[in-house]
Every structure is written in C-alpha cells, then in structure tokens.
Amino acid sequence: MSVKSLKQHKIEMTARRIVSLAISAGMLKRKPCLICGKGKLTKAHHEDYMKPLEVIFLCDSHHQQIHKKGVKK
User: How crowded is residue 54: how many other Cβ atoms within 10 Å of its Cβ?
Assistant: First the structure.
C-alpha cells in the first residue's frame, strides 16, 4: 500500500469513527435510505471524508451501488 493510500485510509477511518461517535452521542440521527426510503440499518455515506459529519444515509444495497457503479443520487 502506498503512502498516499495509507493516508487516505486513515482519513476515511477517522471520518467513519466520528460519525459513529456522533450517532452514539445523539448528535447525528440515522435516517432512512435517501434513494429507496428503507429505514433500518442504513449506512452513512461520505462524499468528502474531510467533512466527516456531512453524510447521506443509504441502505446497504444503494451504498454498494454508489461505490461500485457511481450511481447518481
């Protein structure tokens, strides 16, 4: 793994941890999937990991589609 990819991985992991802590503390509320409206077990998706609390919530299926295919929201 290159230094650049290690640095990016650290940024991504930090952003995910911040979201997790914010949800646990009640500062951020998990919402239904932005695309289909399913409300359970949504995941926070970051457009920009440098803005860790700016997320959209997606079901697992739509989250995977966005990462694999670049599906537009």
Answer: 13
How far is 5 from 34, CA to CA, in rounded Å?
A: 29
Q: Determine the Cα–Cα distance for residues 15 and 35; give it in Å rounded to an integer.
A: 22
Reported confidence tier of residue 2, pLDDT bands at 50, 70, 90: confident
- List, for residues 12-63, the tens digit of each pLDDT value: 999 999 999 999 999 999 999 999 999 878 999 999 999 999 999 999 999 9
- Going by C-alpha positions, the residue among 37, 40, 39, 33 that lies closest to residue 64 is 33
Q: Where does the chain have alpha helices with state H?
A: 3-24, 60-69
